[in-house]
Amino acid sequence: MIPSIEMCFHLMDKYQMLENIKAHSIEVTKVAHLIASGLHNAGLDISLKKTLAGAMLHDIGKTSSLNSTENHAEIGKEICLQNHLDEIADIVNEHIILKDYNINDNYSEKEIVYYSDKRVNHDKIVPLEERLNYILERYGRNQERLRKLIKKNFELCKKVEEKLFNKLDFSCKSLSYLVKSADIKLI
Known about the structure:
Blueprint: H1 5-14, H2 19-41, H3 48-56, H4 62-65, H5 72-82, H6 86-93, H7 109-118, E1 120-121, E2 124-125, H8 128-139, H9 144-167, H10 175-182
Antiparallel strand pairs: 1-2
């Protein structure tokens, strides 16, 4: 099942999503909405409903992971499966790192949410480099192996960005302006 936006908000409350994480998720959803709509309008087989639900719930496991070493993407996948949201479970699970990903495969909701998450720092749309620097500072301190993995993940994200914007009629640099000017309402 693909949840409605209203059901996503209900699940955010049910799993006690912190307000700052909720604000981040809403902004990621707005970015994903703009990209998914653009790709759909370009004739690609992209489900707007699936993309929006995946974006809304991509961090559903984050609050419960804050005081543990558990991976919030895996927790989120389990929450989705427990709530019979099988169609978005993999999107939630792969929003941090795309697994078994081939850049030449068809366009997918999974890569849209993955990319959109990388463009939002807290609740502000930023360039990939700014988000990378934040992630390195926040999670990669004094851990060279982890820093290398984070940088490698962002190298892939740059390739995903190039792929997505190859089909869109707007640039990645205009994303922040377009999301603001579109005034996308989720509720």
